[in-house]
Automatic annotation (TrEMBL):
TM helices/strands, residue ranges: none
Chain ranges of the TonB-dependent receptor-like beta-barrel domain: 320-727
Species whose genome carries this gene: Larkinella insperata
Domain of life: Bacteria
Keywords: Cell outer membrane, Membrane, Receptor, Signal, TonB box, Transmembrane, Transmembrane beta strand, Transport
Similarity field: Belongs to the TonB-dependent receptor family.
Designated name of the protein: TonB-dependent receptor
Lipid biosynthesis found in the keyword field: no
Coiled coil: none
Membrane topology annotation: Multi-pass membrane protein
UniProt cross-references to SUPFAM superfamilies, sorted A to Z: Carboxypeptidase regulatory domain-like (SSF49464), Porins (SSF56935)
Keyword flag Transmembrane: yes
The TonB-dependent receptor plug domain, residue ranges: 112-212
Length: 758
């Protein structure tokens, strides 16, 4: 598992507890047992040999709790000075299984892949931000922005359809092909966000070429006590407020429940020099879960709804070619305003519903069967700057574009029982059926897609070595419905191919682990890449597809090494990926003038691409209470056919921070202060005359962080977090912001976060 060292929430403590969990009667290891620290609610699951390890602990007295369905829960007191080894013997128990509350979570990534996780206090420091913004703390992850309120995660330079997002175990299916179509996910539902860097198509699907993001809620409780948490967040820039409440409990006899909701409201964002007109946001989200757990069966029903209304910067919609050229040359928006909460045209309105049912069954013969069924409905409406003219429905404020996407998914997976306590593995089948209904001016046609896949993964553990191998086959059938010269056409596209992976993990010591992974993956062109033809209002661009595009084929290599010592924690990851028939949006020489205004033009095209680079992070305990963190991301992207760079790839970046932990101070607990700097280079690797304006200059942003806990009772406290980003109100433009053609990026922003756990 990769190690994440967040800038604003780094804990300098470097102790760890390890051991093995065994059956008391036969002394056989117990894989999948939950082991956690009661005082910290931090834990892990045992591996195939029953081993566990919990890192980044401070010195002190802890209660180690071990549990798994079918065994009595065991609590042991451990005094931790530097390291501790605590073995556990569990006794079978079939009577009080409903009282077992497993709080650890297992990651479904291959052990040979680089993995980073955002959880605990590090995740708390991102509360109130979108999913894309929250993941900026992860080394190797940046964002593709459209203005100030829309951010999509980018892993090693790849995004959108090359990065698969799993929302509570379900592949997120929305209009993710659009650069301004941010994930329709409320990060407050997650107790952990996991980033798998590199191709993960064998386990998760053929289109996971760049990586996978797992948004994972905590397991449902079963104890009858009701508890929860309230998060309140305020931001000065945009005068944005966020409130999220989650409460959960159990009914006894193995039943548990959870209800969660979030409200967000913000107004116009301010750059250091002016407000960005019409950049407000309004969001209302809700989720609910109901589950049952016994010794053999674990079943859960989950529903979530994400609803948002986003203002699109009005200065990005320009009426004439001369005005567009003037904005590009002067670098100043034609439309400026003051602060307002109003969200007017142009704007987006999106609602995403997810209904999921999952059941795990453990037969007496061993192994685990998992069945997951889900339905998603994504309703996206995009409104132009101007209302429709000469239209009887104009008074109804009809959207210019509306996409209604319905997706049904199903997965059946069998994990066989360990063979000789060394060999573990799984085999599974998956499929989805999807159809899209589009209304309004043409951009993409209606379509219907069937996809089926089957995979097999095995893992072998031999002493300090672990080997992995997997193979997957996917078949995709897509029927498109479009009118050409008033004649209905139904072109059919069929794509199929194999994905494969091999990897190894070597634990040189308890502190040092190295991972190597090699894999192939592929991605079929989506309907937007094949058939886009018109103005994409949210992106303020004219986009043109190509129906002759072929599937992408990727070959990925990655090498990752991690060291966890008493004073130093370090990670280095290298990757080398080639993609044959790589599809990207290429800027065209001239903008396009339409009846709705003048827009930069882009066309989907193909080439052979190389993505190579490194991620590095280092955290050192400089003094007893002072720690420093440095994170570096380097990326090299090349068009191998034309022997030149490719546009719209992330520039190199370097982030450094210091954190001082005071501990208890003035009646407060867990007091810390920190400062950090993010330096982003100018993207010099851009083909000549390939974009409408040159890449913006390099920039350097400073930030401050602080946090503390206010005790309110013996077992309750209020956590407070303070953050100031872009401390010196620096004027800058990010190369991956689609609206950098028109305006600066946001200025100084101070935030306050309050978390009350009850």
């Amino acid at each position: 598992m990769g190690i994440l060292f967040p800038t604003s929430a780094q804990n300098p403590c470097d102790c760890f507890i390890k051991g093995v969990v065994l059956d008391k009667d036969n002394r056989q290891p117990i894989p999948g047992a939950a082991v956690f620290i009661k005082e910290l609610q931090k834990g892990t699951l045992t591996d195939a040999n029953g081993n566990y390890r919990i890192d980044q602990l401070c010195q002190g007295q802890y209660t180690v709790v071990s549990s798994i369905l079918g065994y009595k829960e065991v609590s042991q007191s451990v005094k931790l000075v530097h390291t501790a080894e605590q073995n556990v013997l569990l006794t079978e128990d079939d009577i009080h299984l409903q009282d077992v509350n497993v709080t650890a979570q297992r990651t479904t990534a291959l052990n040979s892949q680089a993995v980073s996780q955002l959880e605990g206090k590090a995740l708390d420091q991102t509360r109130g931000q979108s999913l894309g913004d929250a993941l900026r703390n992860v080394t190797g992850v940046t964002t593709l922005q459209t203005g100030s309120s829309i951010a999509k995660p980018v892993i090693h330079g790849m995004h959108s359809n090359r990065v698969l997002i799993l929302n509570n175990g379900i592949r997120q299916e929305g209009q993710q092909w659009g650069s301004e179509h941010a994930p329709e996910i409320d990060p407050f539902v997650a107790s952990r966000i996991t980033v798998i860097k590199g191709a993960a198509g064998v386990r998760f699907g053929s289109d996971a070429i760049g990586g996978v993001i797992l948004v994972e809620p905590a397991p449902l409780p079963t104890a009858k006590a009701v508890h929860g948490e309230l998060n309140l967040v305020g931001f000065t820039n945009g005068r944005q407020g966020v409130a999220s409440l989650q409460t959960e409990g159990g009914f006894g006899k193995g039943f548990g429940w959870r209800v969660q909701g979030t409200l967000k409201r913000g107004g116009n964002i301010r750059t250091p020099r002016y407000f960005l007109d019409n950049t407000g946001i309004a969001e209302q989200n809700f989720s609910a879960s109901l589950g049952y757990r016994s010794s053999r069966i674990h079943s859960e029903l989950y529903y979530s709804r994400f609803a948002t209304r986003l203002g699109i910067f009005s200065g990005s919609h320009i009426g004439s070619l001369s005005d567009l050229q003037a904005v590009l040359e002067q670098g100043e928006p034609m439309i400026k305003s003051g602060f307002s909460y109003a969200i007017n045209r142009p704007y987006q309105q999106t609602a995403h519903d997810l209904l999921k049912w999952k059941t795990d069954w453990k037969p007496a013969s061993g192994g685990t069967w998992s069945l997951t069924l889900a339905r998603q409905f994504d309703d996206r409406m995009e409104y132009d700057l101007h209302r429709p003219r000469n239209d009887s429905l104009a008074a109804l404020n009809r959207p210019e574009l509306r996409f209604r996407l319905t997706t049904y998914t199903g997965d059946l997976i069998f994990e066989h029982k360990p063979v000789a306590n060394r060999l573990t593995g799984s085999v599974g089948v998956s499929g989805f059926y999807q159809f899209n209904i589009m209304n309004g001016r043409p951009l993409i046609p209606n379509f219907r897609t069937y996809n089926g896949g089957i995979f097999w993964i095995e893992k072998l553990r031999l002493n300090r070595w672990e080997y992995e191998a997997g193979l997957r086959y996917d078949y995709r059938h897509m029927q498109v419905f479009r009118y050409e010269n008033r004649v209905l056409e139904k072109p059919l596209f069929v794509f199929q191919n194999f994905s494969g992976t091999v990897g190894t993990m070597y634990s040189m010591s308890d502190q040092w682990t190295t991972r190597f992974n090699a894999g192939t993956s592929w991605r079929a062109p989506n309907v937007s890449e094949l058939f886009s033809d018109g103005v994409h209002h949210g992106a303020a661009a004219y986009e043109l597809g190509d129906r002759t595009l072929q599937p992408e084929m990727a070959f990925n290599l990655s090498l990752n090494t991690e060291y966890t010592g008493k004073r130093v924690q370090a990670e280095l990851g290298l990757f080398y990926n080639t993609i044959r028939d790589y599809i990207y949006l290429k800027p065209q020489a001239e903008p396009v003038l339409t009846i709705r205004g003048a827009f930069p033009a882009f066309k989907y095209t193909q080439t052979d691409a190389l993505y190579a680079g490194l991620d590095a992070s280092l955290t050192a305990l400089l003094l007893p209470k002072l720690s420093g963190t440095s994170k570096l991301s380097l990326l090299h992207v090349q068009d191998q056919i034309l022997n030149q760079p490719i546009v719209m790839t992330p520039p190199n970046r370097w982030e450094n921070s210091l954190r001082y932990d005071l501990g208890e101070w003035a009646g407060l607990q867990d007091v810390f202060v920190g400062a950090g700097n993010l330096w982003v280079a100018r993207q010099n690797r851009v083909p000549a005359n390939s974009d409408f304006v040159p890449p913006p200059p390099a920039y350097s942003l400073w930030n401050l962080t602080a946090g503390f806990a206010i005790p309110v009772s013996e077992k309750r406290q209020i956590d407070v977090g303070l953050t100031v980003t872009n401390l010196f109100n620096t004027v800058y433009r990010d190369y991956l912001n689609r609206f950098r053609y028109y305006a600066d990026d946001p200025g100084r922003n101070a935030s306050v976060r309050l978390k009350w756990t009850f």
